[in-house]
């Protein structure tokens, strides 16, 4: 049985998981500090549940992703563990956790 593919996958999977934990935790802290709310199912319309603070956190995450992807991480391959940690896991967790 060839375990090489699994050995190659595990560091990358760990990088995404660690980044997701850090990014999701940062999103939670930012949400608490900003006093942002999440939409409730009892809202009358999509606009009544809209929260500008959440938009700001998401916009910051996207801006950081662009800066990192076009800057320091530009020359790294798509499956590089540092790129996966920072972009896929970290900023993915920051911008999608609610």
Helix share bin: 55-70%
Mean pLDDT: 87
DSSP summary, beta strand count: 0
Using the CA coordinates, give the radius of gyration.
Answer: 17 Å
- Enumerate how many helices there are, as a single number: 3
Give the terminus-to-terminus CA distance: 41 Å
Structural class: mainly alpha
The major pleated sheet works out as: none
Helix/strand order? HHH
Strand content: under 5%
* Contiguous uncertain segments of 5+ residues: none
Outline type: elongated
Secondary structure blueprint with pairings:
Blueprint: H1 4-34, H2 52-70, H3 81-96
Helix pairs in contact: 1-3, 2-3
Please tell me about this protein's structure:
The mean pLDDT is 87. This protein is elongated. Helix content is 67%, strand content 0%. With 98 residues, it is an all-alpha fold.
Question: Could you name the key traits of this structure?
Answer:
98 residues, mainly alpha
Brief rundown of the structure:
Helices cover about 65% and strands about 0% of the residues. By secondary structure, it is an all-alpha fold.
